[in-house]
Amino acid sequence: MNISELNAELARKNISIPELAKLMGVSKKLIYSRFKGETSFKHDEICKIVNILSLSQEKMMLIFFSKQVS
Q1: Of the candidates 70, 69, 57, 8, the residue with the CA atom closest to the CA atom of residue 35
Q2: pLDDT at position 66, please?
Q3: Which CATH class is domain 3-63?
Q4: CA 26, CA 57: separation in Å to the nearest integer?
Q5: For the chain, which residues make up each domain, given as ranges?
């Protein structure tokens, strides 16, 4: 999961995290727990975000399926 890139996409589309939660039909608490890495995004949530942000398949893979090495 590449939270930095997801935040960048939200900024490019001028969508806040609370607004994203509303557009997805989920609570702000749930979306913040996903962004903090406390819980993982579910398949249907990823699909909603991809549609809301009009992400390409490449961008979706970069954001949701990238491995981060620390």
Answers
A1: 8
A2: 74
A3: mainly alpha
A4: 23
A5: 3-63
d(CA 23, CA 26): 8
* Residue whose C-alpha is closest to residue 13's, from 59, 58, 60, 53: 53
For 6-62, write each residue's pLDDT tens digit.
Answer: 999 999 999 999 999 999 999 999 999 999 999 999 999 999 999 999 999 999 999
pLDDT digits (tens, 9 = 90+) for 25-39: 999 999 999 999 999
Question: What is the C-alpha separation between 36 and 47, in angstroms, rounded?
Answer: 19
Specify the 3-state DSSP secondary structure of 41: coil
52, burial (CB in 10 Å: exposed 0-12, middle 13-18, buried 19+): middle
